[in-house]
Amino acid sequence: MESCLFKANKAFIIFIVGSLCIYSILVLTNEFSRSSGEIFLIPEKYIGFIYIIYDEKEGSSQKVNGVNTYNIPTSGVFITSTGISKRLNMFESSLLFYYINSKGKRLQIPNCCPNRKQNSTFEENTIAFPFKDVPSSDSDKLFSSKPYFTYQIDSMKNLGKETIPLTKIKYENSKIK
Predict the structure, then answer these.
(1) Distance (Å) of CA 174 to CA 39, 80, 142, 150
(2) Which pLDDT band holds residue 10 (cuts at 50, 70, 90)?
(3) Which of residues 3 and 113 earns the better pLDDT score?
(4) Is the sign of the CA dihedral 74, 42, 164, 38 positive or negative?
């Protein structure tokens, strides 16, 4: 009787361990195939809003080592032909922000997801996100059908100040004028 119970327990333990292993493999495989991340190369000493406008036919697209890389112009607006990732999540470490100087040297910019209900503070020149913008005026309707995200490089004291309408910004990286 004991040997039957022992065999049943052993089979149950093997089943549980095997199931956990298979589940772990599937989860890890899925995580690695979802998104390769994004790198934002921002002009040195830039302060202000960064607009990334996705899925625009005339926009730029560049992958470096399998990672979407965006060279943000001095206007702060980057238009890309890359579709927005369904898994784009501002809280993930797959988004990397760098200042880049004229020699191509990168300096990583720290990021923060502030909670406005608390008295949050963070350093100057920090990326604050997420802000998924919805066009707020008639002049912004040009991009109403395109998903775009806003990131702000600044300190908490300036967080959430009014954004510049997109149609008033010169689009340096796109054929769209």
Answers:
(1) 18, 8, 14, 18
(2) confident
(3) 3
(4) positive
Strands 67-71 and 63-64: antiparallel
| Amino acid sitting at position 152 | Q
Q: List, edge to edge, every strand of the sheet that includes 126-132.
A: 77-79, 48-53, 148-154, 126-132, 111-112
For 161, list phi and psi in degrees, rounded to 5: -65, 160
> Which range, of 11-15, 29-33, 132-136, 154-158, averages the lowest pLDDT?
132-136
Q: Which residue has the tokens 């333990």?
A: 13
Judged by average pLDDT, the poorest of 56-65, 67-76, 82-91 is 82-91
Q: How far is CA 143 from CA 20, 27, 54, 55, 73, in A?
A: 45, 35, 10, 11, 18
Tokens at residue 161, please?
């100040």
Cα-flanking dihedrals φ and ψ of residue 122, to 5°? Answer: -155, 165
